[in-house]
Specification:
- The chain is an alpha/beta fold.
- It has a single domain, classed as Aldolase class I (TIM Barrel).
- The chain is built from 10 helices and 8 strands.
- The chain has an 8-stranded parallel β-barrel with strand order 1-2-3-4-5-6-7-8, surrounded by 7 helices.
- Helix 5 packs parallel to helix 6.
- It is globular.
- The termini are far apart.
Amino acid sequence: MNKLLASLKGGLIVSCQALEGNPLRDTECIARLAEAAYLGGAVAIRANSVEDLKAIRSRVTVPIIGINKTAPSPDIPYITPTFESALEIAPTGCEIIALDATLRPRPDGGDAATLIRRIKEELGLLVMADISTFEEGVSAAKAGADLVATTLSGYTAYSPKTEGPDLELIRKLHAEVAVPIIAEGRFHSPEDVIQGLECGAHAVVVGKMITNAMYITKYFVGKIGRRDE
């Protein structure tokens, strides 16, 4: 196994992102969150945009998984959906580029398999394929993805909606796909992460529950309600 990929095994990857409208949406703030996650023991950082990735690279030495998002959509890929979007973030210092590898129509009319191959051949970077179903994971691995991630399970119209992580998908992929499986999506506790690893995940990504104070607060408020009595 690639030495970099081996360094991720059994570890926690922290996703450091904040969208417009979130008070944390500031490149310096995101970089500090990433550094804090690194100092706390994260084996890698996942982050979005040229500016954020460059700032994070100056603060951490662990691998960075870079993405380049367009406007979120339930119908078309928006996580590094085109070769041009991958080309923009390639010089930022990220070792891995993650991309939407679902089978939905892509904005440039291309396909995930071609995008995976081009990134590996033309940019010389590792590829993480974000998928939503078992079939998409198998397809991405066959196309040459170095990692298959369950990131989009529950976020496409045709994938199952689960309150927590899609553990069954992790199990199936681990049993049938030769490349490492990265578990991502709705991991809300250390216990969830342990479950993901026990199901065969090579590593687990946690984002909002570590780096998004607004989301964490909403999650707690939703669980406890108001106690006025």
